[in-house]
């Protein structure tokens, strides 16, 4: 097990620009049993959070407290240094308020009050000790701001080093808050202090199961959406993405990990020696010694609720604290609203060309609705195409040259709520291939996708290319496109927005960009004008 001295140097993100107008700059510090984490962010009145800087460290204040009921003095000193640096950073960045909270490691120990007194003396911060219900409420507030839980039942869980918090909601309204002493560090020290053995894991799982059976109701919650935050959950998401080869994903937010896959990850980790476990792709080495116990808790919660998957949240208590401090009450979002809002905000921030982008989106969906099923598209791919079409040209925000590549980077690095990392990578790739060379395995961002995702990118970018060609002049001259799939060809007939309006440029543009659609469909593509004339060009290109 790593010591505090191994981990006491915090890591921080590069500094961001100054605070925009009309927002509050707030710093939130979460002092947990395993780690201490700070976020400095600009919080808007609408609940948007723009991260300015982050800092984290893992002095493990809760280590050994199960038996001694006291925080170890050396760990306390390491933690004081960490909090001091965080307070300094927050003030240097101009934070209007610095909110610091402590959880089970402080509230469950006899010298926790001494630790808080020392923080006040050395850093000038007044630390608020949260009880388990407070933790659960903050986690829920954060989930409400970042997930669409306005309809149906949801269980928001946050697992830390010392405890597990659960918030049960129906249609976005809280119904019950639960706190249980099932933290990853606490359970590791009790059941898995040395080498991980299957017999000890079974005993641990029985303990968790008994606790949940007494405290977590099943009635009305069976099959509920389970949203998990905390290091255990984000590491599960990272390992899952790594196993699928999605190393290019920029965030774990919104990752949906099937219950069976969580079990497989647990099974794999149990059999590995500690030093090998630390090298698993996606697993933070500093957490490798307590991850097994943490995943055991997650698996038992999923089984207790008969839920099919874990939805990973990269947000938690800190973000809930930011919203609470800013007095922002997140709006309850129905399915699709959060995603649409995030995509539109990215488009607007990137100064997208609204008329062209929305028109290409409309034409893309017309073509999808008519021939998408024959191409092998699934219904859910329609939303991916809609998002990629709206965002396909945002790379102009950087410059015209290679703007399709810039679009890929802007989309893949954006915070798009309501969209899983897999979906975000697919949308970025579809936008990337709206022009230029077709998708090829020599392109790292494309070859890293699994086979199924690569096929989705090919199908959707083939449609997007042609739709973009039909608005070559960026003037919405083509009102609509009628598609027919014949025995030997797909016919795409364009209708002019105005009778008699010249659309030769748009017909030429669509014909030039139809090569990938021909490859994907296995038949030729004919572009037909309003009068029925088939467009002929010297040769189709890879796409402008």
Key words describing this protein structure:
disordered N terminus; elongated; alpha/beta; Nucleotidyltransferase, domain 5; 22 helices; six-stranded mixed beta sheet; 3 domains; 544 residues; Hypothetical protein af1432
Task: Characterize this entry briefly.
The protein is α/β, with parallel strands linked by helices and 544 residues long.
3D structure, described in words:
The protein has helices at residues 4-7, 65-68, 73-92, 104-107, 112-123, 132-146, 184-191, 198-215, 231-243, 259-270, 274-277, 291-305, 317-325, 337-349, 354-375, 381-391, 403-412, 421-432, 444-447, 451-469, 504-512, 515-521; strands at 11-12, 23-31, 36-44, 49-57, 97-102, 127-129, 153-159, 164-170, 173-180, 225-229, 256-258, 309-312, 478-485, 489-496, 524-528. The chain is α/β, with parallel strands linked by helices and 544 residues long. The protein has three domains: 4-129, ATPase, nucleotide binding domain (Nucleotidyltransferase, domain 5); 133-325, Nucleotidyltransferase, domain 5, CATH 3.30.420.150; 337-528, Hypothetical protein af1432 (Orthogonal Bundle), CATH 1.10.3210.10.
């Amino acid at each position: 097990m790593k010591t505090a001295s191994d981990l006491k140097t915090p890591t921080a993100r590069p500094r961001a620009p100054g605070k925009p107008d009309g927002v509050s700059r707030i710093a939130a510090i979460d002092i947990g049993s395993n780690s201490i984490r700070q976020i400095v962010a600009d919080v808007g009145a609408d609940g948007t959070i723009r991260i300015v800087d982050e800092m984290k460290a893992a002095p493990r204040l809760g280590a050994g407290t199960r038996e001694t009921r006291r925080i170890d003095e050396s760990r306390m000193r390491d933690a004081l240094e960490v909090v001091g640096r965080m307070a300094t950073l927050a003030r240097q960045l101009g934070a209007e308020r610095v909110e610091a909270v402590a959880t089970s490691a402080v509230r469950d120990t006899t010298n926790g009050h001494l630790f808080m007194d020392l923080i006040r003396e050395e850093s000038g911060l007044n630390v608020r000790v949260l009880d388990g219900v407070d933790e659960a409420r903050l986690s829920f507030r954060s989930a409400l701001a970042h997930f669409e839980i306005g309809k149906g039942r949801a269980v928001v869980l946050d697992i830390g080093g010392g405890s597990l918090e659960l918030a049960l909601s129906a249609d976005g309204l809280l119904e019950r808050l639960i706190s249980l002493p099932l933290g990853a560090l606490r359970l590791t020290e009790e059941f898995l202090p040395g080498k991980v053995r299957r017999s000890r894991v079974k005993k641990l799982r029985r303990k968790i199961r008994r606790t949940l059976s007494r405290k977590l109701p099943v009635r009305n919650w069976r099959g509920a959406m389970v949203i998990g935050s905390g290091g255990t959950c984000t590491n599960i998401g990272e390992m899952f993405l790594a196993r699928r080869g999605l190393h290019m994903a920029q965030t774990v937010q919104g990752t949906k990990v099937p219950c069976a896959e969580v079990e497989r990850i647990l099974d794999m980790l149990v059999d590995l020696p500690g030093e090998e476990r630390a090298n698993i792709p996606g697993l933070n080495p500093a957490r490798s010694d307590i991850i097994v116990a943490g995943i055991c808790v997650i698996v038992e919660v999923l089984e207790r609720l008969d839920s099919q998957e874990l939805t990973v949240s990269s947000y938690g208590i800190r973000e809930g604290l930011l919203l609470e401090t800013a007095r922002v009450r997140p709006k309850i979002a129905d399915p699709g609203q959060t995603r649409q809002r995030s995509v539109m905000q990215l488009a607007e921030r990137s100064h997208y060309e609204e008329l062209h982008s929305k028109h290409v989106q409309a034409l893309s969906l017309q073509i999808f609705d008519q021939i998408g099923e024959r191409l092998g598209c699934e219904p859910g791919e329609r939303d991916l195409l809609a998002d990629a079409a709206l965002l396909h040209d945002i790379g102009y925000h950087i410059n015209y040259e290679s703007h399709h590549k810039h679009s890929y980077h802007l989309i893949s690095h954006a915070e798009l709520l309501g969209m899983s990392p897999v979906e975000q990578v697919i949308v970025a790739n579809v936008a990337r291939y709206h022009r230029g060379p077709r998708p090829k395995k020599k392109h790292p961002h494309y070859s890293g996708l699994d086979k199924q995702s690569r096929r989705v990118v090919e199908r959707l970018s083939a449609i997007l290319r042609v739709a973009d060609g039909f608005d070559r002049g960026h003037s919405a001259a083509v009102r609509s496109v009628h598609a027919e799939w014949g025995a030997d060809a797909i016919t795409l007939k364009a209708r002019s927005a105005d009778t008699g309006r010249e659309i030769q440029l748009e017909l030429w543009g669509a014909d030039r960009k139809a090569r990938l659609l021909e490859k994907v469909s296995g038949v030729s593509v004919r572009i037909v004008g309003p009068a029925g004339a088939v467009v002929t060009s010297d040769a189709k290109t890879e796409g402008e």
